[in-house]
Automatic annotation (TrEMBL):
Family: Belongs to the syntrophin family.
One GO cellular component term noted in the UniProt record for this chain: dystrophin-associated glycoprotein complex
Region of interest: Disordered: 148-174, 316-335
Keywords: Actin-binding, Calcium, Calmodulin-binding, Cell junction, Cytoplasm, Cytoplasmic vesicle, Cytoskeleton, Membrane, Microtubule, Phosphoprotein, Repeat
Annotated compartments: Cell junction; Cytoplasm, Cytoskeleton; Cytoplasmic vesicle, Secretory vesicle membrane
UniProt organism field: Chelydra serpentina
Database matches in InterPro entries: PDZ, PDZ_sf, PH-like_dom_sf, PHsplit_syntrophin, Syntrophin
CDD domains attached to this UniProt entry: PDZ_syntrophin-like (cd06801), PHsplit_syntrophin (cd01258)
Record's protein name: Beta-2-syntrophin
Length: 335
């Protein structure tokens, strides 16, 4: 371990909301504030942790442990933009041995909190890194740890975010997740009840993960949903081109293999109550295909969960409706 003093000046700080606005993300069964930003191909979510002045004492840290827990007083969270993060000398897992000369080695949790709150604007912390307890410090609900897979193999740069286990998280790097929108399914009131009409669901292309966003009101939810859905739809021509290239259907115009349309639908599932689930529909010249998830490979494309033949429809010329000839009295009336 190390023993080093850290000088932190408690003062104003913090980061503002993202340029697109604040939403709430359902993460590990609780709502977390995020700054959401929508680009052409991705939805970026950056956590906006609420301040905890009673815990941080103005320094921008949270602590765990204490004598009653048979643990030293440990730094469990460092808030971006505040004094502790700006000084650059503290990290998660540091045990606070003293505050401005006051020994905290045998302090309770509450005693440590009070000592930090009374420390004033200039604080001298004596700390020691406790590597053995670091795994037991639960990280806050990190947006970057949000499970999300199923991005197209052609888009590795948008397949996720940095490794959440890297030291970057301990150094105050913004907690961020980038969600590629290609072949996601944006829906409302599909898998989660939405009595207030302000939720948005985003289902991953592999159908394994669902992201739930909560807006401040119905109008905001409608605006966000419309924008996300429009961006997903704008990517469909690119998806069709990639699919047809993979299937080798681009060499012959009008090939029966050529994918004409692809879109997500909601399929009703009959259980104890009415339920719905995402289902992907694709159409070629001759087939209607249903998939449980986006088929990015030839093998996946060849294994739909349902296939139906499409019968060719008569042309408009041959099916032009013929008006019945009026009877003699009717013809007279028409004349």
């Amino acid at each position: 371990g190390r023993a080093a003093p850290a000088l932190a000046s408690a003062g104003p700080g913090g980061s503002g909301p993202g340029p697109a606005g604040l939403l709430e993300l359902l993460l590990r069964e609780r709502w977390v504030r995020v700054a959401a930003e929508l680009s052409g191909e991705a939805l970026s979510l950056t956590s906006e942790p609420p301040p905890e002045p009673a815990e941080a004492g103005g320094l921008g840290i949270s602590i765990k442990g204490g004598r009653e827990n048979r643990m030293p007083v440990l730094i469990s969270r460092i808030f971006p933009g505040l004094a502790a993060e700006r000084c650059g000398a503290l990290r998660l897992g540091d045990a606070i041995l003293a505050v401005n000369g006051t020994d905290l080695r045998d302090a309770t949790h509450d005693q440590a909190v009070q000592a930090l709150k009374r420390a004033g604007r200039e604080v001298l912390l004596e700390v020691k890194f406790m590597r053995e307890v670091t795994p037991y410090i639960k990280k806050p609900s990190l947006v970057s740890d949000l499970p999300w897979d199923g991005a197209a193999p052609q888009s590795p740069s948008l397949s996720g975010s940095e490794d959440s286990g890297s030291p970057k998280h301990y150094n105050g790097t913004k907690d961020r997740k980038v969600i590629p929108l290609k072949m996601c399914f944006a829906a409302r009131n599909l898998s989660m009840p939405d009595l207030e009409n302000r939720l948005i669901e985003l289902h991953s292309p592999d159908s394994r993960n669902t992201l739930i966003l909560r807006c401040k009101d119905t109008a905001t939810a409608h605006s966000w949903f419309t924008a996300i859905h429009a961006n997903i739809m704008a990517l469909l021509p690119q998806v069709l081109a990639e699919l047809n290239a993979m299937l080798g259907a681009n060499n012959a115009t009008g090939s029966s293999k050529e994918v004409k349309h692809i879109a997500w639908l909601a399929e009703q599932v009959y259980g104890g109550r009415q339920q719905w689930r995402p289902i992907l529909m694709a159409m070629t010249e001759k087939d209607l295909l249903l998939y449980d998830c986006m088929p990015w490979t030839r093998d996946a494309w060849a294994s739909p969960c349902h296939r139906s033949d499409l019968w060719p429809l008569p042309s408009l010329q041959s099916s032009k409706p013929q008006l019945p000839q009026p009877t003699a009295p009717a013809r007279a009336l028409l004349e």
